[in-house]
Amino acid sequence: MSENMSRSQLLRGASAGLAGMAAASLMGSPPAQAQTAAPEHPNVRLIREYYKAYASGDPNALKRFFAADIRWTIPGHHPLSGTKYGQAEVLAFFRELARAGFRAEPISLAADGAWVIDLHRGWSTTPEGLDIMWALAFRIRNGKIAEAINFAGDQHAADTFFWKHYALAPLPDRLAAR
After folding, report:
1. Segment (H or E) for 135
2. Which CATH code of 3.30.365.10, 3.40.50.1240, 3.30.360.10, 3.10.450.50 fits the domain covering 42-165?
3. CB of 150 closer than 8 Å to CB of 134
4. Model-level pTM?
5. Cβ neighbourhood burial of 63 (10 Å; 0-12, 13-18, 19+)
6. How high is the pLDDT of residue 172?
């Protein structure tokens, strides 16, 4: 099944195709050509390419997808949560995710104007322990991700995992220098 075709679209298309073939055979004419799928929205294509780069395991491969002033919000109450500003902070976040071998399997992508909504399975591999559904809202500007807002399917499980595997440094090293 095509990634951009839902199960119901596939079933409707198959039913219509079978009915058309049956009618054509009764009338003695060849079946009509199959309808072509609508072209993929460019912002959905961008996010699909972003996930391919993410799957490479190299956080630096993601930089080309990010606007210079990107804002990425991570929900929760754990050491990695909060809003990251700019490419350097967002890439630092992804380097931390890479330490835990995070993977993502996109399930659905939909675009409406400048926004792409993504539903995906996200899980850790090193160590194993977090495997939940996530939704992201991506705002696209000039062909780049300008903003992303994460939504965890199980925020409690995410908080517990991140606290367990991303300890804060002891004081006074934990605090930023002024």
Report:
1. strand 131-141
2. 3.10.450.50
3. yes
4. 0.74
5. middle
6. 78
